[in-house]
Write a structure and sequence with these properties.
The chain has 188 residues and is mostly helical. The chain has six helices and two strands.
Protein backbone atom coordinates (compact mmCIF):
# COMPACT_ATOMS: atom_id res chain seq x y z
CA UNK A 1 0.00 0.00 0.00
CA UNK A 2 1.51 3.29 -1.03
CA UNK A 3 1.47 6.20 1.39
CA UNK A 4 -0.20 9.38 0.23
CA UNK A 5 2.31 12.03 -0.85
CA UNK A 6 1.81 15.81 -0.79
CA UNK A 7 3.98 18.81 -1.43
CA UNK A 8 5.07 21.05 1.43
CA UNK A 9 5.17 24.80 1.41
CA UNK A 10 8.68 24.70 -0.07
CA UNK A 11 7.91 22.03 -2.70
CA UNK A 12 9.32 19.04 -0.84
CA UNK A 13 7.36 15.80 -0.97
CA UNK A 14 5.90 14.86 2.41
CA UNK A 15 4.29 11.54 3.10
CA UNK A 16 1.03 11.49 4.98
CA UNK A 17 1.19 9.74 8.33
CA UNK A 18 0.46 6.03 8.18
CA UNK A 19 -3.14 5.67 9.39
CA UNK A 20 -2.45 2.10 10.46
CA UNK A 21 -0.15 3.30 13.19
CA UNK A 22 -1.09 5.32 16.25
CA UNK A 23 -0.09 8.94 16.23
CA UNK A 24 2.76 9.91 18.49
CA UNK A 25 1.60 10.08 22.08
CA UNK A 26 -1.55 8.03 21.38
CA UNK A 27 -2.23 4.34 21.76
CA UNK A 28 -3.62 2.23 18.95
CA UNK A 29 -6.95 0.72 19.97
CA UNK A 30 -8.53 -2.41 18.56
CA UNK A 31 -12.10 -3.57 18.46
CA UNK A 32 -11.64 -6.49 20.87
CA UNK A 33 -15.09 -7.92 20.20
CA UNK A 34 -14.40 -8.10 16.46
CA UNK A 35 -10.97 -9.67 17.02
CA UNK A 36 -12.44 -12.21 19.45
CA UNK A 37 -15.20 -13.11 16.98
CA UNK A 38 -12.64 -13.61 14.22
CA UNK A 39 -10.55 -15.80 16.53
CA UNK A 40 -13.61 -17.92 17.31
CA UNK A 41 -14.37 -18.23 13.61
CA UNK A 42 -10.79 -19.35 12.92
CA UNK A 43 -11.02 -21.93 15.72
CA UNK A 44 -14.42 -23.18 14.51
CA UNK A 45 -13.12 -23.61 10.97
CA UNK A 46 -10.00 -25.37 12.31
CA UNK A 47 -12.30 -28.18 13.50
CA UNK A 48 -13.49 -28.88 9.96
CA UNK A 49 -10.62 -27.62 7.79
CA UNK A 50 -7.18 -29.02 8.53
CA UNK A 51 -5.12 -26.58 6.46
CA UNK A 52 -4.34 -23.01 7.48
CA UNK A 53 -4.36 -21.98 3.82
CA UNK A 54 -8.01 -23.05 3.41
CA UNK A 55 -9.10 -21.21 6.56
CA UNK A 56 -7.26 -18.07 5.44
CA UNK A 57 -8.89 -18.23 2.00
CA UNK A 58 -12.40 -18.66 3.44
CA UNK A 59 -12.03 -15.77 5.88
CA UNK A 60 -10.00 -13.52 3.59
CA UNK A 61 -7.09 -13.20 6.01
CA UNK A 62 -3.43 -14.22 5.92
CA UNK A 63 -2.12 -17.66 6.81
CA UNK A 64 0.06 -15.99 9.44
CA UNK A 65 -3.04 -14.67 11.22
CA UNK A 66 -4.55 -18.15 11.22
CA UNK A 67 -1.31 -19.67 12.47
CA UNK A 68 -0.90 -17.04 15.21
CA UNK A 69 -4.45 -17.62 16.43
CA UNK A 70 -4.23 -21.41 16.43
CA UNK A 71 -0.76 -21.49 18.02
CA UNK A 72 -1.52 -18.98 20.77
CA UNK A 73 -2.01 -20.35 24.29
CA UNK A 74 -5.69 -19.33 24.35
CA UNK A 75 -6.23 -20.68 20.86
CA UNK A 76 -4.75 -24.07 21.72
CA UNK A 77 -6.82 -24.36 24.92
CA UNK A 78 -10.07 -23.33 23.23
CA UNK A 79 -9.48 -25.63 20.24
CA UNK A 80 -8.73 -28.51 22.60
CA UNK A 81 -12.05 -27.94 24.43
CA UNK A 82 -13.92 -27.70 21.13
CA UNK A 83 -12.38 -30.98 19.92
CA UNK A 84 -13.29 -32.73 23.19
CA UNK A 85 -16.89 -31.54 22.86
CA UNK A 86 -17.05 -32.69 19.24
CA UNK A 87 -15.54 -36.07 20.07
CA UNK A 88 -17.90 -36.43 23.04
CA UNK A 89 -20.89 -35.96 20.73
CA UNK A 90 -19.47 -38.60 18.40
CA UNK A 91 -19.11 -41.03 21.30
CA UNK A 92 -22.72 -40.34 22.38
CA UNK A 93 -23.98 -41.05 18.85
CA UNK A 94 -21.94 -44.28 18.72
CA UNK A 95 -23.48 -45.39 22.04
CA UNK A 96 -26.96 -44.64 20.73
CA UNK A 97 -26.27 -46.61 17.55
CA UNK A 98 -25.06 -49.53 19.67
CA UNK A 99 -28.32 -49.39 21.65
CA UNK A 100 -30.52 -49.30 18.54
CA UNK A 101 -28.65 -51.89 16.51
CA UNK A 102 -30.02 -55.00 18.29
CA UNK A 103 -33.58 -53.69 17.88
CA UNK A 104 -33.00 -52.99 14.20
CA UNK A 105 -31.52 -56.44 13.61
CA UNK A 106 -34.45 -58.05 15.44
CA UNK A 107 -36.93 -56.10 13.28
CA UNK A 108 -35.11 -57.04 10.07
CA UNK A 109 -35.02 -60.72 11.10
CA UNK A 110 -38.81 -60.58 11.55
CA UNK A 111 -39.17 -58.90 8.16
CA UNK A 112 -36.94 -61.43 6.41
CA UNK A 113 -38.62 -64.41 8.14
CA UNK A 114 -42.00 -63.17 6.91
CA UNK A 115 -43.43 -62.59 10.39
CA UNK A 116 -47.11 -61.60 9.92
CA UNK A 117 -46.98 -59.18 12.88
CA UNK A 118 -44.55 -56.94 10.99
CA UNK A 119 -46.47 -54.12 9.37
CA UNK A 120 -45.53 -52.04 6.39
CA UNK A 121 -45.06 -49.07 8.74
CA UNK A 122 -42.57 -51.04 10.90
CA UNK A 123 -40.51 -51.92 7.85
CA UNK A 124 -40.49 -48.34 6.59
CA UNK A 125 -39.52 -47.08 10.06
CA UNK A 126 -36.67 -49.60 10.28
CA UNK A 127 -35.50 -48.59 6.79
CA UNK A 128 -35.55 -44.90 7.70
CA UNK A 129 -33.65 -45.43 10.95
CA UNK A 130 -31.07 -47.61 9.22
CA UNK A 131 -30.53 -45.00 6.51
CA UNK A 132 -30.19 -42.27 9.16
CA UNK A 133 -27.60 -44.30 11.07
CA UNK A 134 -25.69 -45.00 7.86
CA UNK A 135 -25.57 -41.29 7.07
CA UNK A 136 -28.09 -41.35 4.22
CA UNK A 137 -30.75 -39.29 5.93
CA UNK A 138 -33.64 -38.14 3.78
CA UNK A 139 -33.69 -34.43 2.98
CA UNK A 140 -35.60 -32.49 5.63
CA UNK A 141 -35.71 -29.07 4.01
CA UNK A 142 -39.23 -28.08 3.14
CA UNK A 143 -40.46 -25.44 0.79
CA UNK A 144 -43.72 -23.64 1.39
CA UNK A 145 -45.95 -21.71 -0.94
CA UNK A 146 -49.33 -20.07 -0.79
CA UNK A 147 -52.14 -21.49 -2.85
CA UNK A 148 -55.59 -20.07 -3.37
CA UNK A 149 -58.38 -22.46 -4.35
CA UNK A 150 -62.07 -22.21 -4.88
CA UNK A 151 -64.22 -24.29 -2.49
CA UNK A 152 -64.89 -26.87 -5.23
CA UNK A 153 -61.15 -27.18 -6.00
CA UNK A 154 -60.45 -27.59 -2.28
CA UNK A 155 -62.99 -30.45 -1.95
CA UNK A 156 -61.48 -32.23 -4.97
CA UNK A 157 -57.99 -31.74 -3.54
CA UNK A 158 -59.08 -33.27 -0.19
CA UNK A 159 -60.70 -36.22 -1.98
CA UNK A 160 -57.51 -36.92 -3.95
CA UNK A 161 -55.46 -36.74 -0.74
CA UNK A 162 -57.74 -39.18 1.09
CA UNK A 163 -57.72 -41.58 -1.88
CA UNK A 164 -53.90 -41.47 -2.05
CA UNK A 165 -53.61 -42.06 1.70
CA UNK A 166 -56.01 -45.01 1.58
CA UNK A 167 -54.12 -46.60 -1.32
CA UNK A 168 -50.91 -46.26 0.71
CA UNK A 169 -52.63 -47.90 3.68
CA UNK A 170 -52.37 -44.83 5.90
CA UNK A 171 -56.00 -43.89 6.56
CA UNK A 172 -58.72 -46.25 7.76
CA UNK A 173 -61.60 -43.81 8.09
CA UNK A 174 -61.85 -40.22 6.92
CA UNK A 175 -64.69 -37.97 5.97
CA UNK A 176 -64.84 -34.63 4.25
CA UNK A 177 -66.01 -31.71 6.34
CA UNK A 178 -67.95 -29.12 4.42
CA UNK A 179 -66.51 -25.62 4.93
CA UNK A 180 -69.97 -24.08 4.73
CA UNK A 181 -71.06 -25.98 7.86
CA UNK A 182 -68.11 -24.56 9.74
CA UNK A 183 -69.36 -21.58 11.77
CA UNK A 184 -65.91 -20.43 12.86
CA UNK A 185 -64.96 -19.63 9.29
CA UNK A 186 -61.70 -21.56 9.58
CA UNK A 187 -60.36 -23.77 6.82
CA UNK A 188 -60.46 -27.52 7.31
Amino acid sequence: MEAAVRNSLYGFEIREPDQRRALEGERKTHDIKQLWQRSHEILRLALIMPKHKEIARVLGITEATVSNTLNSELGRRKLSKMRLARDGETIDVAKRVAELLPKAIDTYEKILDGDPTVTKMMKETADTISMDIAGYRAPTKTQTANLYMSPDELVKFKQRGIAAARSAGMIVEAELVNDEDDEGGEDV
